[in-house]
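Morning F.,

Quick status update on the modeling queue. The single chain you submitted on Monday has been processed. Sequence for confirmation:
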Amino acid sequence: MNVLTLGGSGDMGRMGVAIMLESQIVTSITVADINLERAEHFIEMVGSDKLRPSKIDVTQHDELVKLISDHDIVVNTVGPYYEFANPIMEATIEAKRNYIDINDDAKPTLEMLEKSQKAKEAGITAVIGLGASPGLTNLMAVLACSELDEVDNLITAWGSGPTKQGKKTQYYVLPRKYYSKYKDSQLIANAATMHLFYETLETVPTFKDGKMVEIKPLTEAEPLQFPGFKDAYVCHLGHPEPVTLPRVINANSVSNVMYLGKPVTEMVRKFSQQISNKELTIGEASIAFFKETKKLYKEPEVLKEYANFPPTLCVVVTGTKEGKRKKIAIAGNRAPFGAMAGVTGVPLAIGALMILEGKINRKGVFTPEEVINSPVELEYFFDRYAKYCGEGLKGEDILLKKVIDL
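Structure tokens below.
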């Protein structure tokens, strides 16, 4: 099977490539980037004969369709998704090839889901948002809600909590090694940070009292209360979970919140306002944010706030079971090596391999919870993911679950 990784030499893409290289079903991986030299640099560092470089500008539709047509699946890590997700999806449907990404923006998520019939007619399987949040949070939400008869409030959350990591995988190239060749690497705006600021500029969707509503981004929410951990300061952000999970889970309210700590959140608010005032571009703000947070994370009072925060990804659900009120909380208490790249790139790669292996084969455009939701499917996915979180671990070992009677 031939895999096309768009943005495969980026931070998330490099991890996805590393995991897919381990599979015997994958015969070749094209690492495509607008900067050919960086793709070639990555391939040279990995040293696998399965890899080949390609230069591509994803805004050039005809060239992109031609490139996609030579492969069995597109693994898209080109961000920010509010800019590139839809054009790439259109090219993929035209080329009639399977697709997966880590899209973490609500608006393009809804737009891509509207293309499901076109994808079905093209005979392709497309899975969007299978990373950390969305992705792992969606699947943890399905697990948690399956233990309740009725779901009242579902919270998916991500933040700065400590989580023990597994060992480095064979083919993963560390950022510090990859970027050591580039003196300007810290002066390039990070797509994930650009996405964060993009979500602060307009209202964001959340699901409240049985309907979708728009709220102001970075609106404070009730502290995240995960049993056994410190209550975390949180605010709403525009990740897709509130617009996709209600398609599968009958809940009264669904929200997505982040817990980066109050000092960092206030810094996000500061830069967001400067972007709104046209004092900075999103790219300039992203670079400045990276520099300032690097200093902030060293301050004792900031480190103290993070002590005993919930793990990096978690869900908290309240509802009823056999007439009794309960809270179900699930967190990933172990994670793959690589921090954000690990919890994002590993699920992405597993999803891509499941499509290639025929384990995900429905035709159309789907979210993770729509194609991985049965007990057998969830166990299979998390067992596979657990392999990268520590030697000999199974899914049940890496998911911390708390059940509280209310």
